[in-house]
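Worked example (supplementary).
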Amino acid sequence: MEKRVRFKSAWLPWLLIAPQMAIVLVFFFWPAAQALYQSVLQEDAFGTSREFVGLANFERLFSDPGYLASFRITALFSALVAVIGISVALVLAVMANRVVRGATVYKTLLIWPYAVAPVVAGVLWLMMFASPWGVVSYALQAMGFQWNHLLNPNHAMALIVIAAVWKQISYNFLFFLAGLQSIPNAVIEAATIDGASPWRRFWTIVFPLLSPTTFFLLVMNVIYAFFDTFAIVDAATHGGPGKDTAILVYKVYYDGFKALDMGGSAAQSVVLMAIVIVLTVFQFRFVEKKVQY
Amino acid sequence: MSIRRFALAATAVAAFTALPAHAQTEIQWWHSMGGALGEWVNDLAKEFNASQSAYKVTPTFKGSYNESMTAAIAAFRAGNAPHILQVFEVGTATMMASKGAIKPVGEVMKQAGVPFDPGAYVPAVAGYYTAPNGQMLSFPFNSSTPVFHYNKDAFKAAGLDPEKPPTTWPEVASAAAKLKAAGHKCPFTTSWISWTQLESFSAWHNVLFSSQNNGFGGLGTRLQFNTPLHVRHIENLGNMAKQGLFVYKGRGNAADATFVSGECAMMTGSSALYGNVTRNGKFAYGIGTLPYYPDVPGAPQNTVIGGASLWVMAGKKPDEYKGIGQFFAYLSQPEVAAKSHQRTGYLPVTKAAFELTDKSGFYKKNPGTDVSVTQMIRKTTDKSRGVRLGNFVQIRTIIDEEMEGVWGGKKGAKEALDAAVQRGNEQLERFQKANRG
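After joint prediction of all chains, the assembly is encoded as:
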């Protein structure tokens, strides 16, 4: 099927996308170019002296074992955030879709967390897990479980994953709910008449029809985990214990905004940018083929 | 627009247009003092503004020390930095190295024509902010030093003498054991691991934290806090952590809240916690000196400073510098400085402020408030003047990271200290390279 729209004049399509391109240039390409430029400089905090250092900032990064370990931590963190966030949101969306009475209330409550700033989400969950007086850690202790995210890396990772997932669930939920509501009822009714169980109906009809949504959310969640979660880590664990929750973007934020190492921070954001470009290209070239639209 | 809203807008417009009529020179002061300390800063500005009519100091809370410094740097790059910026001691080397961005306080005072005698300031404090050539670079404002805080009620309940805080580390361990036996879940904790357990620990035992007199001698300084004495202390704390005598409460000053709430019975932390504890703590509160190892010759020596100082930014009008000079002179007045010291628990800025407080009988009425002063005013040696390092923020985080391995029982003290020294030295080398010119 021919999807392409044909324009009669050559300049009209350019004119139509010009406003969007202007925004992309100013808010994406310009900062990206600045990051590239800064990553080859070394300057003092106030920018009164700057010196071209070539690739020294990158060399320093890749000779730091802590930075290399951070890749593994980031991969684990974003996989957990994406998988848990998408699965939980899907379950919630399916349930909310079936509710008849009070549906608006449920939906509103589920959308709330999205309005919370990441740093607030971090503090919120930190409070609940703070031993010994946090609600959750108190309950865990009553069950004989010693919670200590300050010194136990697994607990610390669980804490930031929970906070990050909680904040992103609303977003996933909204897309899944919209996806569910666009599935024609007739298809499901036909399957019901044929005697398919609810479980079977979901896996053979509903979920395949949701696959474009799921794929889109997978990309968005990975990008969220990569770029938007530094405030959660900063508020909840400071990257600790040791460096066990220091994901890549947290180090960018810490080196740039707290330690005032502009060159090093810029070099890290360039690395991060490269990773996301590769990931996105990979996903759209290979994964998208398996997704039906 | 409703009538009420219109009226509100009208008053707002009137208020804004009425201000410039006085032609006062405004001085922007960015700081990081929240809560009770924020009220103190506002009161200082209010009283100075009331004392004269030519200048108006406007304090603005800009978040944590890190945040206000980042905000000021961004503002400087955009060409509208504040006049005065409060910078924590960890940022001192960064500010000193940024020559084009700051104006030395000694110069400001000279230009303002304000009588200024660097010798009037408490030497251990002013020395930290003075360049090798003797010029005072920033104005000592809120310097603190680590002291030993303890909960007298908890001591009483555990059968310990509430009037006799432990003074040595072995005594701390045995007091902690008694507190634990009495049912205390958190006998001892500490804020600012690097500052209290390594930097001050070194000065207190008169050993170096880093070479070149802890960075005062020049940029070529290298860390050396992995001596047998340091290893012994961290090992000791690690063992206490294993037995539940020392409970780690997180980085920075996270442990402060656990002491104020009564959860932890003993803590090493900033002397500036005094105001917070007396205001919010619901227990009898005592202050002791920082513990030491009695078998180390020369211990105890003196502790090092923390807290912050006021830096003057470059590129302002002469009239504004005059106002800044006047303001600093006001803050240095014995009565003003003494009142600040008594209110906050920060060290007195000048010797006269200390003497005035002493004469007024404040220390006798509030036992323990003199601990920080006596710890600091002892004679300093080249090894104990303080620690002034480049990339200090990163170095302290490295120390936090490595020490968490020890408290969690994953790393030995020697291994962790060696790693911290090695990783920290990479930061120092980089700072040296960047600031050679």
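Two points are worth noting when inspecting this output. DSSP finds twelve helices and two strands in chain A. The longest helix of chain A spans residues 65-98.
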